């Protein structure tokens, strides 16, 4: 026998687990979805309501508003201008933030479908640059992948990735991977941080044909070395992004001297 909350006696049948109420969704996630509807109904670069207005409109705390807004900013759906306000991001531009995210995560955050085509998948000996950046001996076996990445079927990025084969044994025998980060997580080498360099460039004729843009079209050349929680270099990537579809957005602050 058991006692109910009103003091009455009830029976719990053996072998039948008590029902567990579903976990309540965090308020900031509920607010994020509401704000996303507002964003999608607005034009690019429209200003969103202030924090105070959002608190009053949705009857939530300032902390809840800030967490929801921060999440949308990380997803590239909005951007903030210090001293001016928060604005709707251009839907045609995929904004990268300072968070370490994969191409697929960036595209899904914009409610687009990521896909791609494998151009090359091979085992190669580490050259001088890859040996230096991945902290392996020159000539050590690496897995090299070259992929054309797309969003809703449109070419967005050419990506070359090198990984120590010791971290992803069997990858070449498995066929085209759906997620390199998943393979690294399975190996206990989940990506945690990265050093990244971005510079302006233009595409050559072969790159232009793959990306479906004219030769000499502006692009962003991005080099990244990714590390796991132990500081091991687990990936080196060189990517070429169409400059008309990608930008890199982050917040910087000025250090004040007394």
Automatic annotation (TrEMBL):
InterPro entries: Bact_HTH_transcr_reg, Chorismate_lyase_/UTRA_dom_sf, Tscrpt_reg_HTH_GntR, UTRA, WH-like_DNA-bd_sf, WH_DNA-bd_sf
HTH gntR-type domain mapped to chain residues: 24-91
SUPFAM superfamilies per UniProt: Chorismate lyase-like (SSF64288), Winged helix' DNA-binding domain (SSF46785)
Key words of the record: DNA-binding, Transcription, Transcription regulation
Keyword presence, Transcription: yes
Alphabetical list of PROSITE patterns matching this protein: HTH_GNTR
Transmembrane segments: none
Protein name, entry field: GntR family transcriptional regulator
Organism: Kitasatospora paranensis
């Amino acid at each position: 026998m058991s006692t109910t909350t009103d003091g009455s006696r009830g029976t719990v049948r053996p072998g039948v687990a008590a029902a567990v109420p579903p976990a309540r969704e965090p308020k900031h996630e509920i607010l994020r979805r509401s704000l996303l509807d507002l964003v999608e109904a607005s034009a690019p670069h429209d200003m969103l309501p202030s924090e105070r207005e959002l608190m009053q409109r949705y009857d939530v705390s300032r902390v809840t508003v800030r967490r929801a807004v921060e999440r949308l900013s990380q997803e590239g759906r909005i951007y903030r201008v210090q001293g001016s306000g928060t604005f709707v991001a251009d839907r045609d531009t995929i904004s990268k933030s300072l968070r370490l995210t994969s191409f697929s995560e960036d595209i899904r955050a914009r409610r687009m479908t990521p896909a791609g085509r494998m151009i090359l998948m091979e085992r190669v000996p580490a050259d001088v640059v890859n040996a230096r950046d991945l902290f392996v001996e020159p000539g050590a076996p690496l897995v090299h992948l070259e992929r054309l990445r797309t969003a809703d079927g449109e070419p967005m990025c050419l990506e070359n990735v090198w990984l120590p084969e010791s971290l992803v044994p069997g990858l070449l025998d498995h066929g085209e991977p759906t997620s390199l980060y998943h393979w690294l997580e399975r190996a206990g080498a989940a990506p945690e941080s990265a050093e990244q360099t971005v510079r302006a460039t233009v595409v050559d004729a072969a790159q232009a044909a793959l990306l479906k843009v004219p030769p000499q079209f502006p692009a962003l050349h991005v080099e990244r070395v990714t590390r796991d929680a132990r500081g091991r270099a687990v990936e080196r990537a060189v990517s070429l992004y169409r400059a008309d579809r990608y930008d890199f957005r982050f917040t910087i602050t000025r250090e004040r001297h007394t």
